[in-house]
Write a structure and sequence with these properties.
Distance between the termini: 27 Å
Strand content: 25-35%
Number of strands: 25
Strand order of the largest sheet: 4-3-8-10-11-1-12
Radius of gyration: 27 Å
Helix content: 10-25%
Largest sheet: 7 strands, mixed
Length: about 425
């Protein structure tokens, strides 16, 4: 009884602490750099965060940089932490060509620049979501995405207390580009407001690590398989993303291009000779339980390289790490033939489908199905055939759309419960 009582108190205190704090989120716009460009169309002020002293600067272009442990604009020093201020109705200086509102701060961290932008949580969700969804999608799917985005930001805010910001503006889960055209969309903002303050918590009352994906290719991935850490709410569940344009995809690349990409990234193999990866249909230890690629090996004339599936997907610009690979010379599905008249003049064209009798599999390939050998043919390609787009973790955007459009017409709470099992939907006070 007392154990349950103290658990309830603990959860309540966590929620109270979170709701009592300002719901602003700090985003790192510049980190670990020596310089940054500032451009102001109006007079602005720099307020020293230690002394409170303010300095007025005229409109114009400036380069913030570090010199002798001090933040400098042009030849003037401003200490180690300043806030950029403007009069009401005026715009803050642009940072590296982008416009922002809210609070802009420049600090020195380990003698490097850290420029942060602090904005309201709900406003931030409204600006992030248009890059992750479409206004024409079902309302319940967009609401689910709004809650997931809000939850992710709250989780990252807690995790980023020591580093001084919640996310970077390049965060894959929450890409942030400040102000500008198409940053916000009214239809999406309306649905963000409809879920205002709602987020997901785990059994301890903490905001969950609400990762998302565009689509998974039929089954989401578990956090343990993808991240090496067990999350009770990041489990592999059935996805409903069959309408996704990336549900199944194919990408072809020349061996020479692969050799070049690998060399540019420090993998010097010589001429590419083979690729080792088991089949999705007969997975080996190089795949996760759902079939995604853990690792694959590229063999060359002078060396080999072992890449994680995620690294390979990033390097070759693949939609996901859920793929098979083949080697061979692709045969076109059809050819175009000219149509001529009785005088031999071309008057049109027609397409003729090509049907090729499949070759008998090579005997050695039956025994080494994970071993894909390159023959060196002129038109030879590596053929990647895959499913889904993104990490495959957590809420699937296309899956949420599928559930909201399905015969059962799931609401956003039910959608979230499906993709984050064991979580609770709560609301800030």
């Amino acid at each position: 009884m007392w154990k349950r009582f103290f658990s309830a108190v603990l959860i309540s205190s966590c929620l109270f602490t979170l709701s009592a704090e300002a719901t602003d989120i700090r985003i790192a716009l510049v980190e670990g750099q020596n310089t940054a460009a500032l451009n102001s169309e109006t007079t602005f002020r720099l307020r020293n965060l230690l002394s409170g002293e303010e300095t007025v600067l005229p409109k114009g272009k400036y380069f913030a940089h570090v010199k002798e442990g001090q933040l400098q604009l042009e030849q003037q020093g401003f200490g180690q932490a300043v806030e950029l201020l403007v009069d009401k109705g005026q715009s803050l200086p642009k940072v590296n060509g982008r416009s922002y509102d809210g609070k802009l701060v420049i600090k020195l961290v380990e003698n490097k620049l850290l420029i942060t932008n602090e904005v309201d949580l709900e406003l931030l969700v409204s600006r992030i979501l248009p890059r992750k969804t479409m206004p024409i999608w079902p309302d319940e799917a967009i609401k689910a995405q709004a809650v997931a985005a809000r939850t992710y930001l709250l989780h990252q805010k807690q995790q980023g207390a020591e580093r001084g910001y919640a996310i970077k503006n390049t965060d894959k889960e929450a890409p942030y580009y400040g102000l500008g055209q198409r940053t916000e969309k009214q239809a999406i903002t309306r649905l963000v407001k409809a879920t205002a303050g709602e987020y997901l918590v785990d059994k301890n009352g903490e905001p969950i690590y609400a990762l998302t994906t565009s689509s998974s290719g039929g089954k989401t991935e578990s956090g343990f398989e993808a991240l090496g850490k067990a999350y009770s709410y990041l489990q592999s569940v059935e996805d409903y993303d069959q309408d996704s344009p990336e549900y199944k995809w194919e990408f072809r690349i020349s061996p020479e291009y692969v050799e070049g990409l690998l060399a540019q990234n420090g993998y010097y193999l010589g001429k590419l000779a083979n690729v080792r990866l088991s089949s999705i249909k007969e997975p080996g230890g190089d795949r996760t339980a759902t079939g995604r690629v853990k690792y694959m090996i590229f063999g060359g004339t002078i060396g080999t390289a072992k890449l994680t599936g995620q690294r390979a997907a990033e390097l070759f610009n693949l939609n996901s790490n859920y793929f098979d690979v083949e080697t061979g010379t692709p045969v076109p599905e059809k050819i175009e033939l000219p149509i001529t008249n009785t005088y031999g003049m071309e008057i049109g064209k027609k397409e003729v489908p090509i049907k090729v009798k499949e070759e008998e599999p090579k005997i050695w390939s039956e025994y080494l199905k994970s071993y894909h050998v390159l023959t060196g043919g002129k038109a030879e390609k590596l053929i990647f055939r895959g499913q889904g787009k993104g990490s495959g973790l957590g809420l699937s955007a296309w899956g949420a759309r599928g559930l909201a459009n399905g015969t059962e017409l799931k609401n956003y709470a039910e959608i979230l419960a499906h993709y984050y099992p064991g979580t609770q939907l709560v609301k800030m006070k």
